[in-house]
Amino acid sequence: MTTAVADVHEHHGPEKGIRRWLFTTNHKDIGTMYLVLSLIMFFVGGSMALVIRSELMTPGLQFVHPEFFNQMTTMHALIMVFGAVMPAFVGLANWMIPMMIGAPDMALPRMNNWSFWILPVAFGLLASTLFMPGGAPASGWTMYPPLVLQTGDAFPFLIFSIHLMGLSSIMGAINIIVTILNMRAPDMWLLKMPMFVWTWLITAYLLIAVMPVFAGAVTMLLTDQFFSTSFFLAAGGGDPVMFQHIFWFFGHPEVYIMILPAFGVVSEIIPTFSRKPLFGHDSMVYAASCIAFLSFIVWAHHMFTVGMPLSGQLFFMFATMLIAVPTGVKVFNWIATMWRGAMTFETPMLFSLGFVFLFTIGGFSGLMLAIAPADIQYHDSYFVVAHFHYVLVPGSIFALMAGTYYWLPKWTGHMYNETAGKLHFWMSTIFVNLTFFPMHFLGLAGMPRRIPDYSTQFADFNWMASVGAIGFGLSQLIFVYVLLTSKKGEKATDRVWEAPRGLEWTVPSPAPYHTFDTPPVKRVSEEAFE
Amino acid sequence: MLRKSFLSLLGLIWASTANADWALNMPRGITELSAETYDLHMMVFWWCVAIGVVVFGVMIISLFMHRKSKGAKPATFSHSTSAEVIWTIVPCIILLVMSVPAAETMIRLEDSRDPDVSIVITGYQWKWHYKYQDAGVAFYSSLALPSVKARFKESGVDPFSVDNYLLEVDRPLVVPKGKKVRLLMTSNDVIHSWWVPDLAIKKDAIPGIINEVWFRATETGTFRGQCAELCGKDHGYMPIVVEVVEPDAYQAWVDTRQDGGAQVAQMEN
Questions:
Q1: How high is the ipTM of this complex?
Q2: Three-state DSSP class for A142?
Q3: Which residues of B fall within a CB distance of 8 Å from A144?
Q4: With an 8 Å Cβ cutoff, are A446 and B227 in contact?
Q5: Considering the entire predicted model, what is its pTM?
Q6: Does residue B231 contact residue B161 with C-beta atoms inside 8 Å?
Q7: How many Cα atoms within 13 Å fall on the side-chain side of residue A526?
């Protein structure tokens, strides 16, 4: 019996060549492809950011025309949100969730393949619009009508690529939910799941709830443009503001889709390097669920200047302020995890600590933005740009970096170059602050966002931000170096770190092509997640 | 090498502080509500600083004391109900304290009853149109010529040589000091947003919708702002200039503008 099983498995290795990647249903292969795609998109979106920052380095137009500048801000956002951050977390989920819950693979492996391979097509379509008459979309990633309807030939391609991204996200989310709910090790009941699995479960529900709404909104844009409907056109009885309501009903949960898995990653890493269990695991779960619930009832805080009734503005202000409570619980719990631990500062821990510090700064500016009268001043200024880049770059992106360094030895079987990793962290941290901190001042002093040129009193801080952006971009090349040399380091042990928790550390390093063909026996799992 | 370049960077920053007008904070503005908004902003800011000092303080102490290289032995505790209750309830109380003045200001912001002067502001790609409802004065306001000449790529004009580069218009909005001015915003094409930081006003100008805001200026002077909602390629080139003048001067200005009615009609075509 046992030999027969072993026999079957020998034939189950990866296929050779391109077929392995095109037809794979293996969660590890698909995870790798997601991660590679998102890294490529990170550099594509990053180059666009550098076009923006180069143009803004000094007053006057030096490099691009205003219309191309607007294309860059729009494409930078779309690519970073849908191409870099979201697929990267799906990649981590693919790699780690089955290994963390003791499952042999994702529950729906063929759909997994499909949901990945849609993405290169979607981004190919989106990128091709750069070469079309009228250029790429230039109305901001928020695509507010009527402006978005002035897009050239790119318009239907924009809508279709968003449909594809949405399909991919919905399929990925279904897969994750089904996997988590059905394929856990026998004695891993829900509240025993690792935080990364928990935050992804919540995120997946958010995705399923809001991606169809988004698809509906952009489809209405499409019919307004081509089929004479007037959903958002005042001249035909429609309402341009309704688009904003629908968009942000999607858009606000969307920002938590990008940060909740980051919370999960950090909640895995801090206990490992503090050598202490995660403080308040259950309250972390409740906090994440609260954040997810609140994300559905705060959308109009993006719209305090559109002219809502007073009662509406007050409601959205109070609801938004409430988010500070569960978010605060998360930050306090991370710090309580570190408290009286025995910390060491390997690269994943450095990135996680950077995350806690800098995400909290983004949280503070978020609290300021919740105060509606003040928000009216901050709205659509560089203060907002500073705020959301603080939660997305040293927030989501730092968590992604932390997760990559943390699990990389498990993936490759070798330790990465620790010196280069630490250098990557310190360079990134210095430059990310140099880039985004001055933007708070610019916004408060009155500089609107999405402008290609500005008055001379904004020159100094813009120059600083541009220097920081170039430095941050170059620092990411260190990350590429670490990845390219990731198989050259010493052999990693199965546990890799001194005190990690979780089932993923009970399998060999590198993780074999198939793990947990049989569910982990109770004894192993007890040791792993107690 | 690294140190040297760091020092020169510091030097550069220092040099630029010396000769540029660095605004770090929100302006206090020239209306009662802009001052209230500023006070709210500072109140939340100082709350954030206070919370930050405590949170980051504890974290930094932990980072230094509880490290393995100093021989720290990890504790094993994994939860504490009382601590968790405290750090849920304390933030709730702080939020309550913040929300009361914020709501009060919000209510005052929305009270645009009984204005002395009403002006309809219409956004166009890419200029503003002002129409004084009772005075029969109407005109467009666009980017001033010196900025227009300098704004293009390879224009050969140094932006630093242009006064109020990108923040000057040909015809400013003129309003009387001490009077309640109501602005009615709409748009002719896409969504724009009329933002003047010193008035603490930012309101979207949306086609098919008329939005209302109001202010009462307490000081005379020239106050500048810009369109704040992305409205196409020249979004960065539709500034706003508001001149607050004494009521007599305002009346005199209205009288001269009314004489140019024919000119206004011509401009509107």
A1: 0.90
A2: coil
A3: 190-191, 229-230
A4: no
A5: 0.92
A6: no
A7: 3
